[in-house]
Amino acid sequence: MNRTAGPEPRGLTRPRDFVWPRGSFPQSKPPVASPSPSSSSPCDKYPAPSEPGSCVFSRRGVHEGKMNCSSSAFSCCGVSPPVLANPRGQFTASCLTRTNQKAHFLGSKQFPRGIHNPANRASLRLSQREVIAFAGKQSWDIGRFAKTLFFFNGPPNPLKVVESILTSLTASAPTEAPKKMETSDVVLVTGATGGVGRRVVDVLRKKGLPVRVLARNEEKARKMLGPDVDLIIGDVTKGDTLDPKYFKGIKKVINAVSVIVGPKEGDTPDRQKYSQGIKFFEPEIKGPSPEMVEYLGMQNLLSAIKNSVGLSEGKLLFGFKGNLLGKFMWGALDDVVMGGVSESAFQIQPTGSETGEATGLFKGTVSTSNNGGFTSIRTKNFTVPEDLSAYDGVELRVKGDGRRYKLIIRTSYEWDTIGYTASFDTTKGEWQSVKIPFSSLIPVFRARTKLDAPPFDASYITAIQLMFSKFEYDGKLNPTFAEGQFDLPFSSIKAYLNEPITPRFVHVSSAGVTRPERPGLDLSKQPPAVRMNKELGSILTYKLKALSFQGEDLIRESGVPYTIVRPCALTEEPAGADLIFEQGDNITGKISREEVALICVAALESPSAVGKTFEVKSTVPFSEPFVIDPSNPPPEKDYEVYFKELKDGITGKEALEGTPAQV
User: Fold this and answer.
1) What does the mean pLDDT of the chain come to?
2) For 239-247, which contacts have Cβ atoms below 8 Å and span 24 or more sequence positions?
3) pLDDT at 516
4) Would you give the end-to-end CA distance of the chain in angstroms?
5) Contact by Cβ (8 Å): 31, 115
6) How far is CA 88 from the centre of its chain?
7) Which has more pLDDT, 235 or 652?
8) Which pLDDT tens digit goes with each residue over 391-422?
């Protein structure tokens, strides 16, 4: 019969087997001594329990039950010793098995193997944290818990925590789909009371598209466009009147703002002379100068709408380009907040990206101990919410490890609240781009779908989170989950526009903008605006300058997907004539304002028009009026046929470098 070395502990008055003093606990395995046949032991007095593989235990005055044995580190009558006892509230046990099994207290408290060695009693003093671990759960780091809470703007409201726990325990899986994200396709029309602008508004309305207009004069705008028009009162020449909040929800812009040109001798109230065209009167500038309208006004407008309409390359939220690394402060948010022991971190790998440059790294160790099973890194709340309403989703560049992760986007400054969530799979060992449409995000709170949550608001993003979890949603499990170490390098997070990208900014300019200073050009053969450029305050020069600042195009360099339309002389004739689209700023002629409006609206939907600059005119000569038979109108044009023939990079400025233009 084997037993442990050293004297038996004192206080064995009932069949509790061994009782250790408070604060003492065996940690190391002592040598096993073979007792003499005459030696006595408690095993001779107390029979073993009747169920193999179990221990009889009690806590005085509290509870009685059974637990599975932890180990057979030493034997007594073929019985493993008890794991824990305390003379002031004893846990006691008698065991039958010598197999290494994890001990359980009522199926929830786990007890590690224990070896009694009175000689080492002084070294067996344990902290409260260690006793918790020996009592069946891994050590819970309360310090890390507190640090986590205060990193993310302090702890949540205790009442809300209790309420959410009760809800999560009683809630069933959702039976309805969550509310879909609200989308906006509002088109802003600037210069909406002008000849082209008001026709653009009419075309958009006929197509059933939501329209908002920017105008300087409210009374004039409502009289012309209707009392219920969605109106922004502002002036592009005055940047302080273009508050970006007025442009929230706008996805696309048609800019028809232009300098007002009128007859020197005056005009009729309905501007009949102006409507005939500049060819038929001696013009002068009315109102703000070309520099204020065409150049500074363009700068102000682009600044106001840039965040609303989006950029072709997307908006970089995290990455190592443009010093965006410091924009986000990442912190670990693991199951320690629920008593778990999983642990993760955000790190920077100086050469970890696919190009050998720096990259972020989400890594850690995940464990299901203590009912845990998730790790995550989350940004601190942004000082100013990110407005991503111009975009269609978020794209991550990651190096996969074959696991399924979650992206969580938050729209509230509260610490413990709903996160709009999507899961994504990765391919082991490969860099990949993961696109997550905003429309796919699910409102989730503590792994349960919230059907009553408001739709996702991409205009008010407060934090971003990456998570690796045992759970998916509503009780479903992550099929790729495994305990242990993991790592997910990610080099960038950005908002993206859906492809194919279409123009978000259509600008109505003018044919002839590159010609006043063009070498070798016969001005006598040019339209009045070209011949009289200087007399008109260099109107065409500033129209061009609106496209070029210090050799760089304001519109092009803005990154906004654009189209620049350069109509020839504008007329009040109806649309429907055959058209000529050209590039290089060489053609002359006329075109209907109504036709220009139709072209602008069509360009908004054409991927072929993105990044293109072109001139347009009708085939009808100036000397011939164009009329239509109302009973037999011309068929609608497919402008895509023209857009597909356009080429990138042709603006007409090439001729300013010395190549004579062909007129």
Assistant:
1) 75
2) 239/299, 239/300, 239/303, 239/304, 242/300, 242/301, 242/303, 242/304, 243/304, 244/304, 244/305, 244/307, 244/308, 246/304, 247/188, 247/304, 247/305, 247/307, 247/308
3) 63
4) 114
5) no
6) 57
7) 235
8) 999 999 999 999 999 999 999 998 888 999 99
Beta bridge partners of 84: none
Global confidence as pTM: 0.69
Flag whether pLDDT at 263 surpasses 80: no
269: confidence class by pLDDT, cuts 50, 70, 90: low
Helix axes 195-206 and 218-225, enclosed angle (nearest 10): 50
Q: List pLDDT tens digits, range 2-52.
A: 444 444 444 433 333 333 344 444 444 444 444 444 444 444 443 444 333
Under 8 Å between Cβ of 603 and 609:
yes
**Is the pLDDT reported for residue 549 higher than 60?**
no
For residues 532 and 116, what is the distance between their CA atoms, to the nearest angstrom? 106
Give residue 144's pLDDT band: very low, low, confident or very high (50, 70, 90): confident
- Is the Cβ–Cβ distance between 373 and 481 less than 8 Å? yes
Contacts of residue 612, Cβ cutoff 8 Å, sequence gap at least 6: 563, 564, 583, 643, 646, 647, 648
CA distance 490 to 497: 20
What are the distances in angstroms from CA 531 to CA 128, 198, 281, 536? 92, 28, 14, 10
CA distances from 137 to 25, 344, 412 (A): 16, 19, 34
The token pair at 448 is 């349960």
DSSP state of 639: T
4, containing H or E segment: strand 3-4
Of 437, 409, 439, nearest to 421 by C-alpha is: 409
HSE-up of 165 (CA within 13 Å, CB side)? 9
What pairs with residue 562 in β-bridges?
A: 505
Q: What does 511-544 look like in DSSP terms, one character per residue?
A: TTTT-TT-TT--GGGS-HHHHTTTTTTSHHHHHH
For the CA atoms of 299, 305, 307, 310, the dihedral, rounded to the nearest 10 degrees, stands at -100
C-alpha closest to that of 651 among 611, 608, 618, 619: 611
User: Is 247 in a helix, a strand, or coil?
Assistant: helix
- β-bridge partners, 580: 617
**Is 211 in contact with 611 (CB distance < 8 Å)?**
no
Residue that is written with structure tokens 């100036």 in the block: 622
Distance CA 505, CA 251 (A): 9
